[in-house]
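Wed. Picked up where I left off yesterday with Reverse transcriptase domain-containing protein. The coffee machine is broken again, so keeping this brief.
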Amino acid sequence: MKIPWPKEFEAVAELVGVKGPKAELVVLGALLRGRAKAVYDSLDGAGGKTTGEAVAERLAAEFGSPVDGEDAPQKFRLARLPVDGGPLVLAVELTRLLRRALPSLDEESEAQLLASQFVESVPATVSQQLKLVNAAQPMDISELAKVTRQLMTRTVAPVGCEKQEMSNVEKKIEELEREIAAIQVNNKRNDKCYACGGTGHWKINCPTRRRRRYVRRYNECSFYPRNLGIVALVDRGAVYTRVNINERDLVCLIDTGAAVSLIGKEQCKRIKPCTLAVHTIGGHMLEVFGVSNSIVKLGDAEINFPFVVTTSLSRPILGADFLKEVKAIVDLRNGKVVTKYGSLTIHESSEVAEIRVAADVSSKKPNIHELCKKYAKLFTGDGEPYGLCDRVKHEIPIKNSRVNIFASRRVPVHLEAEVNRQVQEMLKEGIIEEADSPYSSPVLLVKKPNGKYRFCVDFRELNNITDLKPCAMPTVVETLDRLQNATVFTVLDLRSGYWQLPIKQSDRSKTAFTVRDKQYQFKRMPFGLAGAPFTFRRLMTLLLKNLDNVEVYGDDVVVYSQTEADHIKHVEAVLKRIDEFGLRINKDKSQIAKSSVTLLGHKVGNGEIKPLPEKILTIKNIAVPNSKRKLRQFLGRAAFYSRFVKNFNEIAAPLYKLLSGTKFTWTDTAEQTFNRIKNMLDDRQMTLRLLEPGRLFTVATDASDHGIGAVLSQADRVVEYASSHPLNRSIQPSKRSV
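Structure written out below (tokens, as returned):
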């Protein structure tokens, strides 16, 4: 790692008249301090001749180590205005630490994060004024440093006077304590103090002893815990999210700089007393009542987590301890907090978070809110009835008339109670009914990432004898390409869409399954049937017939418009049709009237489309494959985003070649290709332009012995990459130039 200080030192040394390598070494040794001085002394005392190059190389190795880089985030977060330096010194230090902590951060994100941290690093009195100034006119860190210098010239005198005044008061108190002790000497001449050696008082009353307060403090805050992923921090202010805590939906502040998570007294149930002391960033101590073990719901998981209970708290604070517990990835660019239990939506203000159906692009036009209120009955959640549409019924035609008796599968004893519980829930909700059928498919429970179980029926044998009636199904790329010129989006997630369709009465018996001594069959279309996607697609085609600016993929209905006024009309038409069909929408997974939305593993908005960071991170975390099956899985997941990467298939050709041979042998070339593909998958750079009808397209092509590549663009911005890899044949020179 190259660092600029050696050249700067030589230039200064020459300027002040220090000549010769020996003289420079002597001056350098006198100037170094702390850890750097220890490194210098170790070289000087090791014997032999110490040269300037050796010292520079040793210092570079010491301060450029990975451990030093890991400490940079913590130092960045805890950096404060130095006593012996000014705002400009702080600005330079913050810039150095951030570039060391996040070397690949883009310029815009770096500037915003530096400005945000600088405001937090100056004294509280100056920080409040900076926030007001910066809110009116956003500034970079150098401009903030200049303003801070001006503000401090006005406030430094009062602060200094206050400190001096406190110092004088403390001295007066000490003098009074000594005088009181001296007055008592006459009455207690035989009393001896074992603290100061004087007489007339005891050790416990000695005026030379300062009373100590034993307080447990939480001051181990770090920038962000090392296992807490941070993706593209570009936000300037506080961010909020909705979380269910103690069976209440609460708007919470996300504060990665807070060491502990806080909650108000009225928002928790049982409080255990404790002796904690919690200080704010301004040094004020909060009144703490104790700790409350609260139930936090994330997705399908329930987490028992201790919150510190305090007063003067309008909203709970999710601190670094909670974010570390749920292994959070804070993605402010895409407005999400991704945890191991599911994702939370980030809002830029608590007012927006209070609205269950957020409308971030239409805050000035309440029509979208009125529209959502008008169709409020369509938005349902857990515990509420499912919709039912009988305009399309699922059929299961069999290829032959012979009834097959499918093999059963025993449910493990320790899971029988869970199976019975879920069966009773489905009976209550009208999803299944008791049966007497010659068919019987096996039941199994699949463990979900959150530790809970999904009830599944293995319909593979039934699917093998089913006569399918396929229909045209859209691809992800086709769906995304149709969102042309749109600026406002709504994504309506049909709640458990399959369960809102009935099965034809005569075909219900074919879905039968047995739990212990009872048999059941599905009344609604279950997951796992081979023909289910086609039936659901037919319903969606009928549902959205003659409606403009709407697409559907699976159970996601996407409404897109160029203006807010048009969007209200388009959304109302879709909601009206959904109401007529008797369907219901998942209120927790829908996105209403947004400038950008999460759709089919992508972030779409502002004329761009990009993959979700958590999806890319999952691919990057895949271990080196040790079989063809695992290699095929890796290539399948990575190739899903090949349209974002130039010459993907040509680059991945060595890995595809491993799939064609009879023996799997992992080579150095395969290792290099594997790592290269991972490095290419960078969500910050994988951005494509949405198609714009009417604009000129440009196609650039290229070919080599290893593959063919092409780039489709509009106005010098890439719309899509394409490539292929001819494994078993070479490309003729005449065709390369075509």
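Quick read: The first helix runs from residue 5 to 16.
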